[in-house]
Please model this.
Amino acid sequence: MSNMMYRAAVLSTIMEEMERDPNVVVLGEDVVGGMGTEGGPEAIGGIWSTSTGLYDRFGANRVIDTPISESAIVGAAAGLALSGKRPIAELMFADFIGVSLDQIWNQIAKFRYMFGGKTRCPAVIRMAYGAGYNAAAQHSQSVHQILTGMPGLKVVMPTTPADVKGLLRTAIRDDDPVIFLEHKALYATTGEVPDDRDFMIPFGHARLSRAGGDVTIISSGLLLGMCEAVADKLAGEGIGCDVIDLRTTSPLDEETILDSVEVTGRVVVVDEAPPRCGLGADLCALVAEKAFSSLKAPPLQVTPPHTPIPFARELESAYLPSVDKIEAAVRRVLAWR
Amino acid sequence: MPDIRPFCMPKWGIEMTEGTLADWKVAEGDAFTRGQLLCLIETAKITNEVEAEYDAVLARVLVPAGSEAQVVGTLLAVTAQAGTNAEEIDAFIAAFRPANAPVNPGATAQDNPAPATTSTPAPRPIQTNRAISPEALKLAEASGLDIEPIEGSGRNGRITLQDVQQALNAPANPVLSGALAVAAEDGKAFASPLARRIAAQHGIDLSGVIGTGPRGRISKADVLALVQQPAPAPSAAFVAVPNPPAIIPFDRMRKVVAQRLTQAKHEIPHFYLRSSARLDELLALRKTANLVLGAKASINDYLVRAAALALAQHPEVNVQVHGQTIHRFAHADIAIAVASPNGLVTPIVRLANRQTIAQIAQATSGLIDKAKAGRLSLGDMEGGTFSISNLGMFGVEEFAAIINPPQAAILAVGAAARAPYEKPDGSVGFETRLALTLSVDHRAIDGAAAAQFFSTLKGLIEAPEALFA
Model:
């Protein structure tokens, strides 16, 4: 085991996989960044420090700086993947999937299906998402609810450095397109990570980060830590919370969710995307449909309101779910009669 | 799942409690077909031939021919399909519980193969390749359900707890209302489907109506407002339309009212004292007193004062009942029943026997204002040693109220009415009388004590000067 940051887990996994498989290539805006400058190619760039050192190690054929064009990045990744490479494309901000949506939604998600299974598209599209950095409405969004709704894509949202390692390796070796969502506010968090260079976590297997039989709290990403804090606080009062880290939203581990709800009968879904047609609504629908008879209270969502993300620090923290809001929701389902 | 079935002592007629297996006509291990003679069973009255109802093998005989009489429902034998192994039969017998287990298990014959006598059957382990949730499996095993026919609703047909519960439940028998009339959306009026349905039921044309909802949307309330207006021209023939109920679930207050009053009517042995009091003196005095005091005391405020003074004199009525104890109070906290927009509430005038009429009037008007605004606190309503409920303003002549626990008595006040009476000289005069009904909890208060209190109360109303003492 090594103790490392979330961002270091991203970088070391890419590094290991590039060493293992010469078909793995990296492309994106500023992944190298300093071409032609005095300090050399790697002097500038890689704003998330998730590509530092790759260019020195693997050179220009496998680490490709691109123009500021998300449609070009994803389009190029699609072509590379179809022709036998395993591209890892980086979108600096998940908010910009909009300009590359045809490549993501109509092309890479559909290739295998529309070519009758005769082709595969093993592309990984990494992107940084999430709020909490005062980055305003166009650089803070959580886009998983849009991408999870698209058949043909696998959507991964790791919470811990170990999960980054295991899930990113699975993503790179997977023969289908994978959207890999990295939370900006988690990059500097640390955790124990297995050293095994083949350590993989299969998709569709949620992690039970706290176990208790009274309430099920489902989340992932930055908010999972808040859910754990609430569970730990309530454990002191004798209230047991199952805290489920989804890890992947597509495929979804409905078994872990239903098994927990069949015991607890109470569900709080905590999500960073707005409430309408989102992950929270999707999971509430799942338990209402398949665990209706076990429910002791209406399933609740804790999400931001249906508004763009505010810029002002105070407004942004009021907008986001918090420990207090999650605790209030848990107490509400417990008090339901 | 092997098709193993029990063969039990049948029940022929209401008087049959046991039977004796006279003879097996099929040997253990032999196959039989439907309609074949299986065995002979003797009762106190007759010997009957038992025919097989299906094809199977007589896998195991548990009660040999000529054994002692067996009670109805006792497992006599087990049948199965050919090839069923002995372990499965053993497991079935171990888990078997008669449909109507005997009240006294000792009554079964000692060579009975030990049908489980506990109220829940022992869990029967299920061996299956089907994907099933742990809770679902637990329930299926505990209830002995065959899970194979279940179509799982989980991903890839996985069986959920809900699926098992549905399989165990009786078939649904939903009450359906069928097609309900809905006025067509005609482009002239923008109305909710519910509003259009109500409009259709009442024959209302919505065109030209502008609703109060967002963007002029016609809501249910808008249509109901039209329904309550008199019809512009009475139609010649009565048109029958569906009359569906408006379904109003109990809100919290209604649940509390329902629960407490049901409990009161169930648990408290109520008895009722009825009388009426002459009100003329109090009415006359009230006019003067309100002028002098500058207060706006109502008749009810005077009744609160009168009841409080009477309770102070008769503390055996000024009580609460808590389990097997009576709590007796020196001062009277009087709850007044107020109809608020949310339902019945009973705020309390504290220490009413220590308050003047003016103070009581001030307290009740404050409480009533709070009740109408829905701002009463728990502290305003907690406790109380006596209640007064007045429906006189609605012209109710008299009524009997339900005691509000833990209190032990409540006074129901009807309307003041003019009534003839015989004057001392034998001529007929008219006076105003107020109908009073006292409901009393006989567990805590006896009839005589209640009657004495009632008499004091009536005296105070009829000679109201004492209320200013």
Remarks:
- The CA atoms of residues 304 and 334 of chain B lie 7 Å apart.
- The two ends of chain B are 89 Å apart (CA to CA).
- The interface with chain A takes residues 131, 133-136, 153-155, 158, 160-162, 165-166 of chain B (CB under 8 Å).
